[in-house]
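Dear support,

I submitted the protein below through the web form. The confirmation email said the job was done, but the results page showed an empty box. After a refresh the structure appeared. I'm attaching both so you can tell me whether what I see now is the final result or a partial one.
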Amino acid sequence: MPAGVEKGVQFSLLQSCIIIGGLILFKLGAEFLLSKLNTDKGHKMKNRKKSLKKVKSILETTKEVTIAVGTNVVASSLLT
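What the results page shows now:
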């Protein structure tokens, strides 16, 4: 494999790993917020339901993006 292509694949793998790490941290933060909303007694019920829906949709999107990036990492590593 030419050196330029190999460096590009290595950079792509590094970039994908950084993205996955960021998504994991983002997901942990969203899960913390979700648990906080579930236990917060002073939060208004109407606003809490809206917030819970938003956080759940964020978690679902994060899961889908993580799967897509993970698939990219596996495909890139198989090409090398």
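Response: this is the final, complete result; the empty box was a page-load delay. Residues 3-79 form one domain.
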